[in-house]
Specification:
With 184 residues, the chain is α/β, with parallel strands linked by helices. The chain is built from 6 helices and 5 strands, in the order E-H-E-H-E-H-H-E-H-E-H. Strand 4, helix 5 (118-135) and strand 5 (138-139) form a beta-alpha-beta unit.
Length: 184
């Protein structure tokens, strides 16, 4: 059995709902028919940063030996105003570590609210494409496309997607994952 490891934050950890309702569980169900040889492991934790991911990834790679690693981290780094050089360096280290274990890597970019200023938000956004270009990993889509700007699909905290948003998130990510799995 080959494994897809999702290393993410609250967006992938199904914050505010059961794990079974989240996009990662829906992805596992969706892939079961087309790629029964793959199982999806959700190693996401609410509040996770790229630094936290770096601390946890070695043990996760050793335990699961995934064929694919999906990195959905960075949002909390941005929301906390962490230096962008640290974000980019950590993302690059995460990708490199996963690739060194033999996994193919998809990086899911995140966006942060515009109140952080145009310079920071644009450089934050560019960090994800810079890392994937530098490492040869796959840049996925913004997983909250069609969700983040729709108040009916966001929980009252203004940040986390609702249960109703989960199929949209899964549909945003699925083509990239399907394309990568078809190449394996």
């Amino acid at each position: 059995m080959q494994k897809i490891l999702v290393l993410g934050d609250s967006i992938s950890a199904a914050y505010g709902m059961s794990l079974e309702q989240g996009w990662v569980a829906q992805l596992a169900d969706e892939l079961q028919a087309q790629y029964p040889q793959f199982t999806v492991i959700n190693a996401s934790i609410s509040g996770e940063t790229t630094s936290g991911g770096l601390r946890r990834l070695p043990a996760l790679l050793k335990e699961h030996n995934p064929s694919v690693v999906i990195i959905e981290l960075g949002g909390n780094d941005g929301l906390r105003g962490f230096p962008l050089q640290t974000l980019q360096s950590n993302l690059s280290a995460l990708v490199t570590m996963a690739q060194a274990s033999g996994a193919r890597v998809i990086v899911l970019p995140m966006e942060i609210p515009p109140n952080y200023g145009a310079r920071y938000t644009s450089r934050f956004r560019e960090s994800f494409s810079a890392v994937t270009a530098e490492t040869g990993s796959v840049l996925g889509p913004f997983l909250l496309d069609g969700v983040a700007a729709n108040p009916q699909l966001v929980q009252p905290d203004g940040l986390h997607p609702t249960v109703e948003a989960q199929p949209i998130i899964m549909a945003n990510v699925l083509p990239t994952i399907n394309q990568l799995l078809a190449e394996l």
